[in-house]
Design brief:
Distance between the termini: 39 Å
Number of strands: 4
Strand content: 5-15%
Strand order of the largest sheet: 1-2-3-4
Shape: flat
Order of helices and strands: HHEEEHEH
Structural class: alpha+beta
Number of helices: 4
C-alpha cells in the first residue's frame, strides 16, 4: 500500500488512509490473500460501523475498521458484537503516543469498543520515526500497561 499510495499516506489524514486500507482489505479478501483471509471465513471489512458501548449510554461508538465473520459462529450470544474491531491512529511529530493511548487503546479498555470480545486491534500509521524510538516506545508501553491494569473490569 505504501508504494502505490505514498502521496495519500504522506498527507497524513487518518480517514483517507483507513479508507484505502479498507479497499485493500476488500481486494485481499476477494483474492483469499493471505491464505485464510477469504470470503469463506470473513465478511467484507467495513469502516465506522456503529456499535453500542458496554453501558448502553451511547449507540454511536465507531471503531475505524470492523471485520465480521462470514457466517455466525456457534456459542456467540449476539452476532452484532462478534467481529474483529480495529482503531487506527496516525503517529507523527504532532500526533504521538498519547493520542494512540488516549483516543485509541483507551476506547477498548473503557468499554466503548469491542467490549464483548476477548480481543481487539490497534493500527498505527507511523509517519515519523521519532514516535517509534525505543525510549518513547518503552514509555508508551508502561503507560499503556498501566492504563489497561487500572481500567480493566468485567463488562456488564
Amino acid at each position: 500500500m505504501l508504494r502505490d499510495h505514498s502521496i495519500l499516506i504522506h498527507a497524513g489524514d487518518e480517514d483517507t488512509i483507513t479508507d484505502q486500507l479498507r479497499t485493500e482489505l476488500v481486494a485481499m479478501r476477494r483474492e483469499n490473500r493471505p491464505r485464510g483471509f477469504g470470503s469463506a471465513f470473513f465478511g467484507v471489512p467495513t469502516r465506522d460501523s456503529k456499535q453500542r458501548d458496554c453501558y448502553g449510554a451511547s449507540i454511536d461508538q465507531s471503531p475505524d475498521l470492523t471485520i465480521y465473520p462470514a457466517h455466525p459462529r456457534r456459542g456467540i450470544a449476539d452476532d452484532q458484537y462478534d467481529a474483529l474491531f480495529f482503531e487506527c491512529k496516525v503517529l507523527d511529530r504532532t500526533r504521538g503516543m498519547d493520542l494512540y493511548r488516549l483516543n485509541g487503546i483507551e476506547r477498548f479498555t473503557t468499554g466503548r469498543y469491542a467490549w464483548r470480545m476477548p480481543h481487539a486491534g490497534m493500527i498505527a500509521y507511523v509517519l515519523d520515526k521519532h514516535e517509534t524510538s525505543r525510549a518513547r516506545a518503552r514509555t508508551a508501553k508502561r503507560s499503556v500497561l498501566s492504563l489497561v491494569y487500572l481500567t480493566y473490569r468485567p463488562w456488564p
